[in-house]
Amino acid sequence: MLNESGVEVHHEMHHGPALSCSFSQNYFPKSSLRNRESIVNARTMKTIIYTLTTLLLSSLLSTVSHAALEPELIVENLVAPIDVATLPDNSGRRLILDQAGIVHVLGVDNKLGDKPFLDLTDRLLPLRQDFEERGLLGMAIHPEFARNGRFFVTYTAPLTDDAPANWSHTRIVSEFTIDSDNPDQIDAASERILISQHWPSRKHNGGALAFGPDGYLYIGFGDGGGIHGVGPQTLNDAYSVPENRLWWDSTAQDLQSLYGKILRIDVDRGLPGYAIPADNPLLDSQARHEIYAWGFRNPYRLSFDSDDSATFYITAVAETLWEAIYQVKGAGNYGWPVKEGTHCFDRMRPLDPPKTCTQSDDVGSTNPVIDPIVEYPNMSVHREGSRVALAGVGTAVVGAVMLRGESFGKFSDHLLIADWSYNFQEPSGQLFVAKEKADGLWEMAKISQLDSRIIALIRDSDQRVYVMTNENYGPYGTTGKIYQLAM
């Protein structure tokens, strides 16, 4: 399952309607053979470039390490915390979402409430005590919560009776309301299911959920993960996919499917369901009208830019080589699986990305595929047979938030980025900052390394930034902690 370098960690950690396939098989050409001499030369050059890159990166990181943001431990003994949000009711209380199925209340004294805000453990599909992407994946507080008490979550439930046989689970997006007799708890009986989507695989769930400044609910759905096998087990890794399963990659480009998309819905109209915002981009087509942006493999976290009413950032955990962060300023095609990051992608030659590929979308227009603003190679570039001559930087991108305001000092107007762990065997979560350049990818530098694995990075509505960690490989145990960053 893993080699000594642990190169598959990011695939196992967060790979997360009827299907129709709109991709041509031309996206998956057969890999060509190369002679032994060219391979030896490539490996020699790769070693040289690896060494130079590592030295350059070390030099760059040393120039910023003295200015690191300092993490302060505020909560521990959780399972796998992956979100924090401040209740907009002037109470100062915060909510902590734990992937294991519980939403906790955190008081102004940083003490957990005696009872959970919401407990959904009995509605979740049972979780594995191993690599696990399923569970309680996201929460969003209605902007008018102080008035209406509405609260939204997304989670993985057991397959419902109408699901295809032998699939993994049913993905739920639901609304709850506050208990009228207890403002510290949600009424668990008030659940109103908005979206129920059957999921073929335990992988590539996504999980992003947030209200935008426009008042609409944004939902991140992964591409379904069927490429790794249908059902609760992973049948193959990203580098050995049978040809008869290749079509599963196409779901992110299929506009009649919700897989691999950012959805945008209006939960204040269309009751008892929801309405479609009038400016969603695909209303004049046969596409699903909920779709706002497409071409994502696994949109795990979504964070709005605090001083921009339209822009948000999506973390895209790599399938093979390139971790990426996308700046979404509007509707469009963000590339997967034509591209992984800025690089062309070919499932049949995953360690040797093609030099050229389609640069416009495949839905009857000439809109260019939108590239990420940040990318970095993960440790899979060191796999045997890799043709990428760069040093790996991390294992899985798990969060990105924009820092705004004087409280962040010299890091104001920088994008803060979290990586799960530099090393698979040893907990070594990393923090980076990235600064926009005049053109091209943003400039990125490492500022901190923790003795923990980072599983999420969140900025709340009060501009507080939280780093969430866990010492295990999934949502089990009690090693979950939350740190608040301070200058």
Give the overall average pLDDT: 86
**How many whole angstroms does the radius of gyration measure?**
21 Å
CATH architecture field of the domain at 17-33 and 89-393:
6 Propeller
Oligomer: single chain
- What's the CATH class label of the domain at 17-33 and 89-393? Mainly Beta
Using the alpha-carbon principal axes, give the shape: globular
Count helical runs. Answer: 3
From the N-terminal CA to the C-terminal CA, the straight-line distance is 40 Å
Keywords:
mainly beta; Neuraminidase; five-stranded mixed beta sheet; four-stranded antiparallel beta sheet; 3 helices; 34% strand
Describe the structure.
It is a single chain. The chain is mainly β. It has a domain at 17-33 and 89-393: Neuraminidase (6 Propeller), CATH 2.120.10.30. The protein contains three helices and 27 strands. The strands form seven sheets. It has a five-stranded mixed sheet with strand order 10-11-12-13-17, with no helix packed on it. A hairpin with a 5-residue loop joins strand 15 and strand 16. The chain is globular and about 60 Å long. The two termini are 40 Å apart. Residues 1-66 have low confidence and may be disordered.
